[in-house]
Amino acid sequence: MRCVGYWLVTVLLCVLTYALLSGNLQNSKKLEKFRQDVEEMAHVVLSKYAGKGDPTLLMEMIDRSVKKHLPKIWDDLNALKKGLKAGECPSLASGKPVFKIEERVNYASKELGAKIIAVQARPVCSSNYLKALLGMEFTTNPPVRMLESKMEPGNCFAFRNDTAVVTIKLPHLVLIDRIGLQHISQKQSPNGDTSNAPKDFTVFAIVGDRDVLLGKFHYGCIQSNLLQTFVIQPAEKYDLLRFHFNSNHGHPRYTCVYRIVVYGKM
After folding, report:
1. Any idea what the CATH number is for the domain that residue 159 is in?
2. What are the residue boundaries of the SUN domain, all occurrences included (predicted)?
3. pLDDT tens string 184-217
4. Which of 91, 120, 146, 172 is deepest in the core (most CB within 10 A)?
5. pTM above threshold 0.70
6. Could you report the per-residue pLDDT of 38-67, keeping only the tens digit for each?
7. Reduced to 3 states, what is the DSSP secondary structure of residue 212?
8. Which domain holds residue 241?
């Protein structure tokens, strides 16, 4: 009984905390439905579990409710956190949000636990055997930069010429619906040149010993649309992706990949 009570208190605290933070945001209907589900769980505890009910019934209800509502709440919390870091805050007193939550969760994010598993590329600067042996070929512009949200000049994965293959492990199995890239603007570039942006790239999902083609894409490096995403038709959930960068926008010596985005649902 104590275990069940702990579960209910934890769920209720999560709902109340999120409601206080988000104020009158668009997901209020989902929160209300989540609250109703929690009340239904509590009713089961009071009427059935105390003495003769089956405890697995409650556990199944909790599992169904969390799986149904938590992904959307996680998306909103992640965007809310970014808004707060930027100095924006929802107005709890007036009940009107100061900003709108629109950005989705990027599962290819170092902050969430995404990792670089393998890299096939040539470093911009000449390497040597010792650096290669220690995995320090890309010390200046390491591949992990692609998983960071900091869009500043030089904060990218840079490799020689225009081809590279990078394998990424997502923090969870994700039903992917969009994949994309982001590059800095010409105004941000010290010399105004963004020809080092990737252009054509292909993405595979790795499932066991087979590769699943998710698509062949073209990043346009359009100044008014620097974050470009491409629709994926999800067939199943994936957590291992391989990116093939096949060309850039004309730079003769190297390519810079600033940010990879992977959107979807758990």
Report:
1. 2.60.120.260
2. 105-266
3. 999 999 889 999 999 999 999 999 999 999 999 9
4. 146
5. no
6. 666 656 555 554 555 555 665 666 666 555
7. strand
8. 110-265
